[in-house]
What we know:
With 95 residues, the chain is mainly alpha-helical. The chain contains 1 helix and no strands. It has one helix at 3-75.
Amino acid sequence: MSEDQNKGFLSGVTGTVGGAAKGVTDTAGNAVSGLGNVVGDTTKGLTGTVGDTTKGVGNTAKSGVDSAANMAGGATGGSSDSSDKKQSAQNPLGL
């Protein structure tokens, strides 16, 4: 094998090895990126679920307090909420 042929052969081997190493590195990087995205999406989903549950509990509690206040207001002949129509003592639930 002449010197030029030898250089060409070594260059081809080096290029092949470099390409293979780059492919393995890219694959590993993509796998790590994929796992990171899955973990991130899962965490985001859990946070959204917890937030929605907390919001639901808060809304339920507020509705309960508002209902109790409106009943109390109706029983006294008025309304605890200025946006409600006035209720009489004879009709405390406004029915």
